[in-house]
């Protein structure tokens, strides 16, 4: 599960076109990157797939169902961090699960499992400010994965990290993706990052946002 189908998605803001009739399909389990220069509409496209922004025309289906509004079958990791500073790492993950209907103890147990997945079980009781930027972004990833979404959406998740941490995080993400066969749609303006991570790359151009090409990557990658 976890396909994404976009048909003729157009978005304009105050009459200015940000996306011009974009169509694509993401296969279940695919790691799909969207690249292009700043302002070409990458974030807008991701937000439309998430349901945070409505397309001016065209449609998006996730797993065959039309996207209407944000929903737990789609989780997002944004650039920078969106952790609640007053909660522990464990509770940052557990809180969303409780909101989703799990009982406190179940939520905490599940949060713990996902912290193990990102190898942060030792800092479960730390506050976010006690962690490095890379660790915080791992917590964001664990929190997104813990809701067990059909698709994981990522918007320049590593952009704020230093080069070395970024590399570690890229490997970490590949390891997890490989292990879970999770559909990922990953937005970046860095071609090298897209090539390193993705199976398929949608290249957008600017003025206005249009598909320039779709590239399949089939070079040996670190996980192979
Ligand atoms: P990217 O993620 O590729 O940098 P964005 O999707 O953020 O591109 O933006 C695409 C275009 O749409 C840009 O010209 C941007 O200024 C414009 N835009 C994005 N969000 C809004 C908004 N909420 N209101 C008006 N214009 C917007
Ligand atoms: P990105 O990191 O993708 O380049 P931006 O920094 O361009 O994103 O945009 C950050 C936020 O500001 C987004 O939520 C976007 O929708 C909004 N935004 C971008 N451009 C405009 C604009 N021209 N008018 C209003 N909001 C905008």
TrEMBL record:
**Native species:** Streptomyces chiangmaiensis
Top-level taxonomic group:
Bacteria
Among its keywords, does the record have Repeat?
A: no
Which Gene Ontology molecular-function terms are recorded?
Answer: ATP binding
Protein name per Swiss-Prot or TrEMBL:
ABC transporter ATP-binding protein
Which residue ranges does the record assign to the ABC transporter domain? 4-224
| Signal peptide segment | none
Q: Does the keyword Cell membrane apply?
A: no
Q: Which residues of the full protein are shown?
A: 13 to 236 of 269
Enumerate the UniProt keywords alphabetically.
ATP-binding, Nucleotide-binding, Transport
């Amino acid at each position: 599960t976890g396909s994404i189908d976009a048909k003729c998605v157009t978005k304009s803001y105050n009459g200015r076109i940000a996306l011009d009739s974009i169509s694509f399909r993401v296969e279940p389990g695919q790691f799909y990157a969207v690249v292009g220069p700043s302002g070409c509409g990458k974030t807008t496209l991701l937000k439309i797939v998430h349901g945070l922004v409505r397309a001016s025309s065209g449609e998006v289906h996730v797993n065959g169902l039309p996207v209407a509004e944000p929903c737990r079958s789609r989780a997002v990791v944004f650039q920078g961090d969106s952790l609640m500073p007053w909660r522990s790492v464990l509770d940052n993950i557990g809180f969303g699960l409780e909101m989703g209907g799990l009982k406190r103890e179940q939520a905490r147990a599940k949060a713990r499992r996902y912290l193990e997945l990102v190898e942060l079980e030792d800092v479960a009781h730390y506050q976010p400010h006690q962690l490095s930027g890379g660790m915080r972004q791992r917590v964001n990833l664990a929190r997104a994965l813990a809701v067990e979404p059909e698709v994981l959406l990522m918007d320049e998740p590593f952009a704020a990290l230093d080069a070395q941490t970024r590399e570690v995080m890229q490997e970490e993400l590949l390891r997890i993706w490989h292990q879970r066969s999770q559909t990922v749609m990953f937005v970046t303006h860095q071609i090298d990052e897209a090539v390193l991570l993705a199976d398929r790359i949608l290249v957008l151009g600017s003025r206005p946002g249009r598909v320039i090409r779709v590239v399949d990557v089939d070079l040996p990658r670190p996980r192979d």
